[in-house]
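User: Hi! I'm working on a homework problem where we have to compare a predicted structure to a textbook description. Could you give me the structure for the chain below?
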Amino acid sequence: MKKLIYLAFIFIAISACNNKRVVNSETNEINTGVDSDSWVLIPPGEFYSGMHEQETLIDYNYEMMVTHVTNGQFAKYLNEAMAKSTIKIVDNQIVGYYKGDKFDEYLHEFEIPEGDKLHMPVNAAGGHVKFVDNNFVVDKGYDNHPVVMVTWFGAYAYAEFYDYRLPTEKEWEKAARGDDTRAYPWGDEVGGYITNYRSDKNALQRLVGGKKTRTTPVGYYNGQTHIKGKGKGKNAKEFVTKDNRSPYGLYDMGGNVWQWTGDDYADVHYRYMKGGSFNNYEYNLFVWARNSAGPDFYNINIGFRCARDVKIEKPIENDEADIKESDNSETSDQ
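Assistant: Happy to help. Predicted structure tokens:
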């Protein structure tokens, strides 16, 4: 009995010595060469929506981010938003004001009134944006990975801050599918060489580094062969990828992390996500697949990307009549 008590004491002592949270978990930094600040234009037109390929029309231009919003971009936003007091930290949670939703009083629908809503937990396990010394920073090597642990409210607030918006499900699907009937954004086949999903990741983990690495850098699957070290043959730490861009040039529209969309459907309080994640199987990556959760839900495999309206600039009108009249006046004076 004394021996058991002694062992228990030793276990508690060891645990106490190791319970200090490591703020900056690290991974190997990988430069994919993909610009996370870039956007693409999605033109108006019909596309095939859903599993049953229903012809659907979007009759306007809009733009979508080429990649997910990254940890680096989100940390920058949080610092700017804190400086402008549009967000704040309360009880280890980042919160901000939301206008509320129309309540339809439907069965099982939750009311979402106006007020401060959860955007992201502070320094929670699984996230890589940390609050250190009154500043938001990113764990080493994760700057160009997609931000995760963001609620729908947090994604909405980010988009609103920069005068963007979250894409509707239809906008997202068109950007992912183009104008044909492909099953995945890159075509009709899937494998570990073309996206980050639940598959054999031994080679990927060995290259990226660490057993805890779940996300991949945005644009990682771009046709490049990523190499680490000088190994050869079976010992080579390399990963050969294929380009997973959609017909319009968007990366990672299937896999890596789920993406919040902007629809607020009548009679439900849920929000919907598209794209699947590193923790999902092939069928979750279909362009028509979707997932749902409450707008205050967050997880290690949920992120987002933004859309924005195309601003139509009015042409500068030159009064040609006045110019001609002025020219004639000068001629007559001579």
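For your comparison, note the following. Residues 39-309 form a domain with the paralog of FGE (formylglycine-generating enzyme) fold (CATH 3.90.1580.10). The chain has six helices and 16 strands. Good luck with the assignment!
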